Amino acid sequence: MTIVQEQLLSLLRAALWEKKPDASDFKNVSWKDIIHLADIETVRGLLLDGISLLPRELMPDEDTVMDLAGRQNKIIQHNQVHREMIVQIDKALKTNGIPAVFMKGQITALRYPHTLHRQPGDIDFVVGKENFPKTLDTLDTIGKVDRKLIHEHHGMVWVNGVTIEPHYKVHNYQRPSTDKAMQELFSEVFPDKLIKADLDGYKVNVFPPTFESVFLISHMVNHVYEEGLGLRMLCS
Prior knowledge:
The chain is an alpha+beta fold. The protein has helices spanning 3-17, 31-40, 44-51, 62-95, 105-109, 132-139, 176-189, 209-226, 231-235, and strands at 100-103, 123-127, 144-145, 157-159, 162-167, 195-199, 202-206. The protein is built from nine helices and seven strands; from the N terminus they run ααααβαβαβββαββαα.
């Protein structure tokens, strides 16, 4: 592991666990390289939280801090847009009698010390397979549905520039036995054993901890084989 990788991990641990990083790790530091790596791993929004716990003399120059603060503020604004959109989607689905459960993204961010500092990607939620066509029809009233672009477990929708992925399966696991087991676990909790999460005063359905843990870990393993695994996903 390179010194830049070690320093980034130290800052991320500090940001997520709110514990001061080892100052001795930052006596020789290239903030440009750390920020570049954080951008690759899509965790720049957490950098300033970790840096703020360093001794003042080890912090980057004022211009770098101001740039990080500006980027973090943009991430906060994007997250607020995503949360407002989740509320809009959930209300539209409820109006049409479609049970849904939201996952990843804004839901995992709720466990961060600063919940709006996680860099957002898209919005994921799951409905019953029988309700998937009706879900696309509903989303077509508030955004643009690409009905030709339906993957092996979700569709693709864009609302005001934000990518929405309505799922009819939590994920598609390549091994048939694993895929069958996850579908069975899903049917045990959806829709009657879901729990609620608070998004700025609005309650949305989320998975209970046991199912979410199994899903997130298996999802990460799948990424190792297929698309690669980034630090943002590990921080989830």
